[in-house]
Amino acid sequence: MQQLTRPVTKLDLIHPQTFLNRERSWLEFNRRVLHEACDDNNPILERVKFTAIFSSNLDEYFMVRVALLQERAAGEGDWRSVDGLTAQEQLERICQWLTPILIWQQTHFEQTLRPALSHEGICLLNYEALNSKQRAYLLDVFHDLLFPVLTPLAVNATHPSPQISNLSINLAIVLRDRETGRESFARVKVPESFPRFLPLPIELMEKADQAVHWTGIPLEQVIAHHLEFLFPGMEIVASYPFRITRNADLDLVEEEADDLLRAIERNLPKRRLGGSIVRMEIDQAMPPSLQNQLMEELDLQLEDIYRVDGLLGLRDLMGLTTLPLPHLKYLDWSPVPHPRLRSLAASRECCKTCPQKTGEDFFAILRQRDLLVHHPYHSFATSVEQFIDCAAHDPDVLAIKMTLYRTSGDSPIVNSLIEAAQNGKQVAVLVELKARFDEENNIHWARHLERAGVHVVYGLMGLKTHTKTTLVIRREGEKIRRYVHIGTGNYNSKTAGFYTDLGLFSCREDLGADLTELFNYLTGYSRQREYRKLLVAPVNLRERMLHLIRRETANCRAGYPGRIVAKMNGLIDSEIIETLYEASQAGVQIDLIVRGICCLKPGIKGLSDRIRVISIIGRFLEHSRIFYFHNRGQEEVWLGSADWMSRNLNGRVEAIVPIEDPELAKDIQEILGIMLADNRSAWDLQPDGNYVQRHPAKTGCTVLSSQDLLMQMAEG
Predict the structure, then answer these.
(1) Which residues pair with 627 in a beta bridge?
(2) Which residue numbers are catalytic?
(3) Whole-prediction pTM value?
(4) What DSSP assignment string belongs to 383-419?
(5) What is the pLDDT of residues 286-333, one digit of tens each?
(6) 543-575 b/e with 16+ CB inside 10 Å = b?
(7) How does strand 464-465 pair with strand 652-658?
């Protein structure tokens, strides 16, 4: 067990030595994602998917985190991270930390994944490997389809370097005038209107021992080998692909926006062309002279340059995972209806076809007792979607209120809300326009809802509304009853199929009253400071979470056992971390399941020796947030939308709900226990920030994958 270099005192709790670097922790998370691409226990197309996810995650990381650090390095010279590094120091270290991971990714893809794909009849070829018939076919494709679209761009004193769109692949071309011998520089953008990997007809493949399912070639290679048609009379000296990444921050000052929707809409094009360049990926073979010319043209520093020995933009490999080859993917998983909802699952139209409510309906089931669903093990369609659909068509429902942070492109939930408004119900929806990278989609749905008569609001100034809540108000005889759904995940039908999330359905009066006041806070001028049951950020969530941790500390100091188990996506907030250190020193046993960034150092003698941190990476993205406190045997279990990150506690509207049904609380504790026992997909965080993957203790021991076990349990 690692020890600090000096005795631990109260001051040490906030010393930089006691925190892990946030940026390195994120890179370690993405390394674990990449490990799934290298794990031959996973089917080949799933390994390709993880390679693409790794690259996509990295693109977003540069667009957001690296961009922010660059801004801080330029304007906040005294700013330091919790572990004591300046922004510039972190930028330099990111390059050092990331370079070997990128080499690992490229080497594994070229030497292992690509040959394995070919063995399975999925052939991603290089142009040099093509035969004469294939080259002739691509020559026709170039002239018929590509040539009319391509625009060669000279770069010189009279033609300054044009704007280069975010995440686009380009060719940097060195030309020589055949008459004067003078060299010049040009650029061609690889068009995004064509598939990145241009498919070749199967019949052009040479006979092989195994069946060929798909053959393709990178589009940039097709263009590079036909440049003479774009620059007639010029000698093509060389061409090299490069790719740039821009700052994705919309740089929107909310206080100055008269119309937030229109302001965001006006700023969206800046993400593609206007943001500063934060990274340039170049072909390994590009000579230093051309690299320097590009750096000067684009105002880049050496730490912004990443040389790649292989294909750029491996996120585009995601397209291969749609090939209809189920034997090369995970066994298909179909979420099952929750046992208490099976009587309704046979007909998604239950409320339309039973207007007299002669049989059992969704609301009658909730009146019996609270209901907990666990996605994607339980069906999202027959639970959340059906709840909204029933409310939309039930003649006794008077109003529906809902928050939408991210939703799918073709959302059954949005359609149900529209139908509810058309059926004369009062429908209010808070659409979070500032959900990064979903702004355009959310603007589309906001307008669609408004046209249908839904009352749409866009949240609170300076805060993102991240909470996942629905409130249904229903007339029942002479009374009004409120039904609620409070969850950990977005109302998104697509991600519900591969994100793990929990949701509570209830008609408890205290929760209904709390949600009523929360929606008044979101849609009006309410300044509600007290809630009966809910923990709400930024109102009381931080204070209450600190209280719950400190209560375990006090219990231990009074001679009682203390226990905390918490599951989340990220643990960054320094005050929470310091309070957990204090709890550990008092004797509280703490297990943390943190999928991504974790700045807490576990297992340090005298500081955090009673804290264990694991991360689970599997076929599903672990997304649920759960908090368990022993509380002298009066156990408390909470779930909701917030991580233990400063942005969640201070800068977002979040809701955490207590699970007061003893059976449901035990169900959640069982889920936590299964995850803590995982020896297949779990990784243990070490005090130095590295992660070690778990394996069965010895040969013959049972392999326990928490996600596999939860699927088996759901099937019954």
Answers:
(1) 566, 638
(2) 466
(3) 0.92
(4) IIIHHHHHHHH-TTEEEEEEEESS--TT-HHHHHHHH
(5) 999 999 999 998 889 898 999 999 999 999 999 999 999 999 999 999
(6) ebbbebbebbbebbeeeeebbbbbbbbbbbbee
(7) parallel
